[in-house]
Amino acid sequence: MKTNDIILQTMTKVILFIIILFSFHIFFAGHYTPGGGFVGGLLASGAIILLLLAFDKKTVTTILPINYLYVVATGLLFAVGTSAGALLFNAPFLTHAFGHVNLPLLGDTALHTATLFDLGVYLVVVGVTMTIIQTIGEDE
Question: Using an 8 Å Cβ cutoff, are 124 and 41 in contact?
Fold first, then answer.
């Protein structure tokens, strides 16, 4: 039996955009307020899960042809790389560096290596969560 999910699918397209934007906001606000890579990654995973609920797995795979194990590997590379990068400068493991740069459109902007670490955490959370959900939800 074919179901009519036109309302769910239409609302998912709108809500997905809002959730992803909020995920990015939480990610970037994580240095100065609660949030960061973990919570932002969970929100992004929730948005992809909403896509899986509204559409079938084949459609979502067509839209997002992502192997989430590669996402986990990339995230681990970022997290471990920025953590161990401090060792190259005779600083303790997990020491981050920061500085201020004057960018043309943004003005005085603070840059932190902790942002790269949080990006790694974000990618690991999205990759692991989606791998678990897709493994549990397989038909085979």
Answer: yes
CA distance 118 to 41: 10
Cβ-based neighbours of 41, under 8 Å, separated by 6 or more: 23, 27, 121, 122, 123, 124, 125, 126, 129
pLDDT in tens, 18-52: 999 999 999 988 877 777 899 999 999 999 999 99
Greatest CA span in the chain, whole angstroms?
65
Distance CA 22, CA 107 (A): 24
Nearest partner of 114 among 128, 94, 140, 133, judged by Cα: 94
Angle, helices 6-29/113-136, rounded to nearest 10 degrees: 150
Judge whether 41 and 126 are in contact, CB under 8 Å: yes
CA distance 46 to 60: 14
Contact 68, 134 (CB under 8 A): yes
pTM (two decimals): 0.88
